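Query form — protein Transposase

QUESTION: What is the three-dimensional structure of this chain?
INPUT:
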Amino acid sequence: MFQFESYHQLNTPSQYRYIESYLSIFERVLHQQLECNNRITCIRLDLRFPKVSNYQDPKVISRFIDALKARLNVWKSQHATQGKQHHRLGFSYVWVRERAGSHNWHYHLVLFFNKDAFAYLGVLDLNRDNMRSRLVEAWSSATGMVDIEVKSLVHISSKEIKYLDSNSAEFYDQLNSFWRQFTYLAKVATKDINDGNRNIGYSRIMFN
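ANSWER: The structure tokens for Transposase are given below.
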């Protein structure tokens, strides 16, 4: 296993000022993933609120994570009932809270999964049981809004899904590409909300 400290010093982009404690957290979560999963799906997403509302409940992000875990448990139960092979989920996450030019804050997240369990998001169809729909449903549950209201507030672009394979000859290229994207969440700009609530959260234990 390579040393994260030297990797971070050599490979963190220089175009922003970063919060060093956040970078240390990112390294910790990623190191945990690489110790447990050889193949990892990394999903970068944004969670926002309607511009017409004034949303000030900091517990919403915890409710989102809990709602997503509940939907993952349903998926596991369905697979067990149907006798399908079940891979460990290997789910962990990092989120940061920001505000930039709006009265509402927003969240940037990276979700990690064992790629053998989840490799694709699927299309957004609230009648289908796939990862993209689960994310929308979890944000709906967390905010108390209906699915159709929040689907445009859960943003994931195809460029923001990365894969890491520690056994691949291309692993370091994959890691470099992902790390550039990941460290954006640690930039100093837009983090200074100063309302007494946390601006970062992460998983201590992997959810399987």
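ADDITIONAL NOTE: The CA atoms of residues 98 and 191 lie 5 Å apart.
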